[in-house]
Amino acid sequence: MKIYDAIIIGAGIAGLNAAASFGEDKEVLIICKENSWDCNTFYAQGGIAVPYDEEDIQVHIEDTINVGATLCNREAVEILCRDGRVAVDDLIDRGFQFDKGEDGTLHYTKEAGHSRARILHAGGDASGRCMHHFLMQENQHALLYNSTVTDLLIEGEICHGVRVYHKGTFRNYYAKNTIIASGGVGSIYKYHTNARSISGEMQGLILEKGGKLRDMEMMQFHPTVFIHNKGARKQLLTEALRGEGAWIVDEDKKRFLFEYDKRGPLSPRNIVSSSIFDWKKKTHKQVFLSLKNFEKEFFKKRFPTIYFNMKDLGFKLPADEIPISPAFHYAMGGIETNLDGKVLNFKNLYAIGEVASTGVHGGNRLASNSLLEGLVFSKRAVDNICSSKFNFELKVFSQEEEVLVKDGDKVLKDELRELMWENAGIVRKRSKLEQTLQRIDQILEGDIGKLLRLRLKTSRKIVKSAIYRQESLGAHYILN
Ligand code: SIN
User: Fold this and answer.
1) How far is the CA of 413 from the centre of ligand 1 (A)?
2) Which of the following is catalytic: 269, 302, 417, 455?
3) 13 CB less than 6 Å from ligand 1?
4) What is the 8-class DSSP label of residue 419?
5) Is there a common fold for 223-328 and 409-479?
6) How close is the Cα of 238 to the center of ligand 1, in Å?
7) The CATH number of domain 409-479, selected from 3.40.30.10, 1.20.58.100, 3.40.190.10, 1.10.10.10
8) Which pLDDT belongs to residue 389?
9) Protein residue closest via CA to atom 8 of ligand 1
10) Are strands 356-357 and 334-336 parallel, antiparallel or unpaired?
11) Does 240 score more than 80 pLDDT?
């Protein structure tokens, strides 16, 4: 029986950088639910935030903590910003090309909540795609595609590997260490910017195995999303647009955001999202992203993904205004880990990237800190694994599995998405949250497949955490 040094669930920046950090001599298996690019990293536009220089480390720390609304774990933030510069420089040394300005030096852009330009980008607005492509080209480990992890093979505090569903059969894969890097919860919301397969199942599994999720009420909604395209994943319009001059206006061209915060379009995204929501509700007016401050040739070169995607949808940019709505974007909450990514209550189980919660983002993530988190905390987890002396006797598990999907699950999944969007979204009401909790419990008692059950358990935790936190804080905005 083959025993891997590590199994990594997910091939976004955290998963692939973890694989790279192991080096060639370790036996590593990376498992992707669908294709390797079906991850949130691939769709990240804006870039990667990184301290500009030594002096900026402290400023980046403070910006992250200020936006994080009192909930950040300072130690995690210090690690992110201190190790962040090293991690990005290492990526550059490995050959990754960030965009440069006309003078040939790295071009740093600005996004909301940052007190200076410190966001590196690549391919204009294709930062995540370029980084993913680079990490895939670098990868020297086995990748298993179209494979859903249906169980963690856990006994006591030890994880022996995973059970995987692949092309109609179940199979167990065994490993000395298991790393969960499966991303957030996008598909449990009706409108989101995430990759299609990101649906919070691993978080539900962790709950069933006795692990903990924390800060689950802290769900981030990106303010500038075009939601009228077909398909579950909606078209993100990067925050870098606002950083470089885009405006948010209503149908009378009014820049109403200044009525909510003096920073206007550069306010942290929880403020921009809830202000758009409120303005639309109060005035019944449509809200737009205006790109009129950009010159066409510059725009096309700097934001090619948005230019061409929106062209396909009939928009002529930068001349046309784009109707926008906030949409679910990022989960600050996740599987509770220590600062080395180790899942609490387990000896050899790790979680990194968006699926994890070290407290680094607190109640609201500073824009473009997530790719940096993926790089920094994946390396720490692998360093911890490689320096650990933990040994255990492997146990063989049965390959029996429950039914994953049952008739009727699709309709219930759609109902869940609608409920989560309406009641556990940008602005929440206690009574609606309580109704949602009751309905989730009712569905959970019915005859449903395992995958829906795991999604429901994660959703239930989001709703319960939102009910529990009585005051508005960070991304959690509650009207009683
Ligand atoms: C964006 O490009 O606006 C997204 C950046 C992020 O979510 O950090």
Assistant:
1) 27
2) 269
3) no
4) H
5) no
6) 6
7) 1.20.58.100
8) 86
9) 368
10) parallel
11) yes
Mean pLDDT to the nearest integer, 327-350:
97
- Ligand 1 pocket, 64 CB below 6 A? no
How far apart, in whole angstroms, are the C-alpha atoms of residue 35 and residue 11?
9
Q: If you take atom 1 of ligand 1, which residue's CA is the nearest one?
A: 238
Handedness of CA 445, 451, 456, 461 (dihedral sign): positive
Q: Is the CB–ligand 1 distance for residue 238 below 6 Å? A: yes
Tokens 């691939």 appear where? 42
Tokens for 13? 């920046």
Q: Which atom of ligand 1 is nearest to the CA of 368?
A: 8
Q: DSSP character for 354? A: G
Q: What is the pLDDT of residue 88?
A: 98
Ligand 1 touching residue 367 (CB < 6 A): yes
Domain ranges of the chain: 223-328, 409-479
pLDDT of residue 20: 97
Place of tokens 């062209």: 311
Q: What is the C-alpha separation between 249 and 428, in angstroms, rounded?
A: 24
pLDDT digits (tens, 9 = 90+) for 263-286: 999 998 889 999 999 999 999 999
Q: What is the pLDDT of residues 1-35, one digit of tens each?
A: 999 999 999 999 999 999 999 989 999 999 999 99
Q: Report which of 300, 302, 360, 305 is spatially closest to residue 331, judged by C-alpha positions.
A: 360
String of DSSP letters for 201-270:
HHHHHHHHTT--EESTT-EEEEEEEE--SSSSB-EE--HHHHHTT-EEEETT---GGGGT-TTGGGS-HH
User: What does residue 307 show for φ and ψ, rounded to 5 degrees?
Assistant: -55, -50
Regarding the beta carbon of 235 and ligand 1, being less than 6 Å apart is answered no
Pairing of strands 213-214, 334-336: antiparallel
Residue 72's SS3 state is: coil
* Assigned CATH for 223-328: 3.90.700.10
| Average pLDDT for 368-382 | 98
Average pLDDT along the chain: 96
- CA–CA distances in Å: residue 304 to residues 112, 229, 318: 21, 18, 11
Quick check: CB of 370 below 6 Å from ligand 1?
yes
3-state DSSP call for residue 122?
coil
Give dist(CA 256, CA 287) in Å, integer: 10
Ligand 1 nearest-atom number relative to CA 224: 3
Q: Is 82 a catalytic residue?
A: no
> Which ligand 1 atom is nearest residue 329's CA?
7
